[in-house]
Description:
Blueprint: E1 4-10, E2 14-20, E3 26-28, E4 38-39, E5 41-45, E6 48-51, H1 53-57, E7 66-68, H2 90-109, E8 113-119, H3 125-137, E9 142-147, H4 148-160, E10 173-180, E11 185-193, E12 196-205, H5 210-229, H6 237-256, E13 259-266, E14 269-276, H7 277-283, H8 285-301, E15 311-315, H9 322-332, H10 345-361, H11 375-378, E16 386-388, E17 395-401, E18 406-413, E19 421-428, E20 437-443, E21 453-460, E22 472-479, E23 485-491, E24 503-504, H12 510-521, H13 530-544, E25 554-556
Parallel strand pairs: 1-8, 8-9, 10-15, 12-16, 17-25
Antiparallel strand pairs: 1-2, 2-3, 2-4, 5-6, 5-7, 10-11, 11-12, 13-14, 17-18, 17-20, 19-22, 19-25, 20-21, 21-24, 22-23
Helix pairs in contact: 2-3, 2-12, 4-10, 5-6
Bound molecules: adenosine monophosphate.
Amino acid sequence: MTAYPVGIDLGTTHSAVAWIDAAGRTAMIPNADGNILTPSVVLFDDAGIVVGREALKAVAASSGRVARWVKRDMGSPSYSQPIGGHYMPPEAIQACILSQLRADVERALGKSYHAVITVPAFFDEPRRRATAEAAAMAGLPILDIVNEPTAAVLAFGEQLGYLTSPGLAAGPLKLLVYDLGGGTFDVTVAELRPGQVRALATDGDSMLGGYDWDRRLVDLAAEAFQKQFGADPRQDTTSLHQLHIEAEQAKLALSARAKAVIRVVHTGRVLEVHVARQQFEERTADLLYRTSVTTRQVLSAAGLTFKDIQRVLLVGGSTRMPMVRKMLADLAGKEPHGEVNPDEAVARGAALYASHLLAKSQPPAQPTGRLPPTAAVNQRPSPQLQVTNVSAHSLGIEGYNVKQDRRGNTILIPRNSALPVSVSRKFITRKIGQKSIVVQVLEGESSRPEECTRVGRMVIRNLPPGLAAGTPVKVTYEYGSNGRLSVKADVSGVDRSMKLEFERTGERTAQQIAAWRQVLASEGSFSRLEPMIRSDQEAQRAKAGISNEEVVALLDAPS
Ligand code: AMP
């Protein structure tokens, strides 16, 4: 039985799936409606769970039962809106979308496939962890997680012949990938060589996307309505949802035309608000500006200027807004390129990456007939693909700084380090007879732990009595190409075989994931999910309560 490589772009507003076809090319897998894009929207109906177009249609009528833009809440304990009166974990909602995509894949390819899921490059550890859990809850066989811009560069590389026949491709290309989707934004500078994709620097914003542009139109129209009728449609959930749909439609129209109309319906009254493209651009200029600041920062982090960049790649539906193209053309002094389809590039690139991983695990040198039928592995003259990512955030440890007499963040792996990377650093215990040590992993740039994300921790308990103050502790962080972390700590003179699990903040056990998987796969009304939501919340709360009393911060000992 052969395994097909599959790429899944789990987007904020839409998701898409690609595979490598028999001719060795990437191809999209349509959903049951025959569409390439599946709205990332879930309706928790009494009759069951509905994902995609039908769920989107129900947004206005069943707003308390519909979840959308869930990707923005990944890494948080719960989705921002209650569903059926309950705060659900974002992972479980994303799992519903992934289950639907899984059904689409299985309808097209059968059960033998392995998938790669994409995430924004700047997704931190908790968000990556949450994505992996969502995939596990959906029962998806996942090979790895890959960064969206890396996938986009792979898709672009495929088009230019960089991944297939090196002879076709010219010399190295430096690219800037500007990815503005429905809910997230990121910029990556990368280098493309035959058979090689190397990210050089990356940054982004998990709370910036087309959604925010929609909101500005929602506000504009709601203010006009309020002025006319003295009532605010944003105060009513149903009116607000309907208005958001209208606002997004107007935004799409403004990409093609100079004017659009937003119809506001609230308390039985109707107002048609006319918007000009220029007015829209003025109302959103600050959002666009934020993206331009990030773009410049990423370039300078890569030690480059626009003169060094040969191509600007546009990814994500929101790059269709003329203001984006104009801003980038002004900044770069050259027109951005539209070679890759912004809706499909990420899924296609993920499929290429999946094929590369499968080829690595199933070397084409043994023609056993069990190799993937994908030409990507054994029919294409593919050079060995090399993909290098960078860390989007710095990873540090919460330590005790004696000189300043306060806790601080000591960075072990600086942002934009090429992955995989492994860094060890020596610390020492702080007090005589210290009973336990906490390696508290922080993600972020600040020197203050409270301004960083607490990714997880490792607790070494039951240290031998009377352990001397200043006992060396070697801490090692290993950061994989997929942006996932493992942590080791060795206390000098103490049982070296001691194996400790790195406890990720909020990570679920295999049993909890299996329980979610079972309940999500079962049929029936929303009430069947309620006991699971409650027990999940309790388990999460219990974890958050790990006692900190016994543990003493590490003292950084400069080596
Ligand atoms: P993605 O997450 O890449 O699917 O991007 C979806 C976002 O792109 C949504 O916010 C859409 O409203 C937006 N979008 C799609 N097409 C257009 C367009 N023609 N003009 C402006 N925004 C668009």
